[in-house]
Acyl-CoA dehydrogenase family member 11
Amino acid sequence: MMLVCAGSCCRVWRGVPRQLAHIRSASVAEPGMRRSDEEHLWEAAGYLPFSRAKIGSFFQERPVLKNPFLEDALLRGYLRRHLPQEAAFSDLCAFGERVANEVDDWGRECEVTPPRLVHFDPWGRRVDHIVTSPAWKHMKDLSAQEGLVAIGYERSFGEWSRVYQMSKLYIFSPSSGLYTCPLAMTDGAAKVIQSIGVSWPTDEAYSRLTTRQPDRFWTSGQWMTERQGGSDVGSGTETVAVPQTDGSYKLHGFKWFTSATDADMTLTLARIQDRTGATTPGSRGLSLFYAEVSRDEEGRLKGIEVQRLKDKLGTRQMPTAELLLDGLQAHRLSEEGRGVASIANMLTITRIHNSVSAAAAMRRVVQLARDYATRRSAFGKPLKDHPLHIQTLARMEVETRGAFLLVMDVCRLLGREESGMATQLDTHLLRLLTPVVKLYTGKQAVAVVSEGLESFGGQGYIEDTGLPGLLRDAQVLSIWEGTTNVLSLDVLRCVARSSGMVLHAYVTHAKSLLAGASSVSSLAPAVKAVNSALSELEDFVQVAATRAPGYLELAARDLAYSLARIYTGALLIDHACWKGASPSDTYAALRWCEHDLCPVATKQARGCYDPSTPPLDAALVYDRD
Ligand code: MFK
């Protein structure tokens, strides 16, 4: 038996009609028992809001996704400043409308209808079909129509074409059902082919990767990862390429993580076998190959077996497979032994796409959280009227703004390089900032999206709100395309290989970004913070140059973070000085610069990179008592 109300304090009982008051302590019929006349009376009078047929009258309004272009003051401000063309604005506005009203639902459908692998046809033939949802196919057509790869190659907006393309992807990404992954690799493959020279056998592929016609559009894979070689591609790649008499190769190997495996073609790495079957070990033994994914007349994949699809934490919308390459026909694109250097262009592009998706994930969760704060009330007022809640959202906003400006600046540099306008300083900056932006935004996306979920309370943890998927998908951003540590070491490598020129370019440009703020008193604390962080950075570099190589390796991650934070501070200040800037742009710059902008100097001062720390770290990690 279930009591209607046990406590005299229950509000439901106040003002109860006298003829019904005796039911106050009576019991309610259990399922299957007849309800009493009194109970029906109670229900009719509205005093049984939680009976079997009712679950209460309050339903929380859900957060609403509005046009992500119109909702993003910084994106619009940035474009007004750098790319004020009406054509770009109207296209982005229309696309934003489409994303909110149509594409976002497809993205959800991709999530709830993940790809599956069908190994055999009904008659037992091995077919290895990766079956994807209709929504995933819509994404492919949409990507072609909207020019999500093509814009970068049409270059209608000259040096700003990449900024325009990435602005579109930024709007699209959180609603794309992870279709941004195949687009990143497609863009990267087009870039590699273009840089090597568009001619047979890749001319047809290039035109298909960069077309706007859905029926011609191809996507590309990037098959780099093997069981031994995750990050360590150079020594871990086992796939061999056997030369054929017609000049092509047959590839034999096992690719352990191949993303968006329903691609039409791929770029991949393999070791060329000589006549004795021997190969050259290490990175210098790797060459770059182009292969098309095709089927024979019976529907079987030619030269490929799909071993299985991966069961992943997130990115479940997208097929990721283990592939056995069993005589896949391929064409060598690079010189022999220049595979890693040749695929580096692809890594640059995919790492920039990764950063766009990271900033976009942050922006999306902020947009939803701030909308929700107007719809949800607690403790007597809407969330937006609780200062602590708004402070939390403001901190997320500052992180998001910083990430956006850092990402767009790297896109700007890429656009300059591709349109032949890059100075030596731009080229150095692009090389240094590509790993920096990828590693920093990848990490921040997880932190901001996680905080964002919390702002929905328990609902942020509920699967069919669509919110948990944002967090799961954010987690991959710091892993694929180079983990945080691998990219931190890439920063060190590019500093060493350029004999410090990339750092010189960095400091020069960061200082020039501050120039416009010298007479803006409201920004003075921020300018001071960035200037002193730059001095600390220079001091750190001077000291580190005198130490053993292990010192810099221990400092690599903190150095990369410092580079990200200082440069982003300078970008925020620069943007706040623009004549069209808003008071919020200034406020965001001030808040950002309250961070420790140069953690590598702070930790250096505490002796964190001294030779004594690795054994202590190891003792701590393996402490068993
Ligand atoms: C939404 C976004 C979606 C993103 C799509 C993701 C889907 C795809 C998923 C994947 O495929 S994940 C697989 C990604 N794998 C990695 O990112 C591998 C991570 N490991 C590294 O990046 C290593 O640092 C690396 C494999 C590059 C190290 O290899 P090596 O052979 O030890 O490199 P080394 O000796 O430093 O450099 C060899 C050459 O490449 C040098 O050129 P040179 O011989 O001319 O001097 C380098 O300058 C060049 N190089 C290396 N890294 C470069 C680079 N050039 C430009 N940029 C770089 N980052």
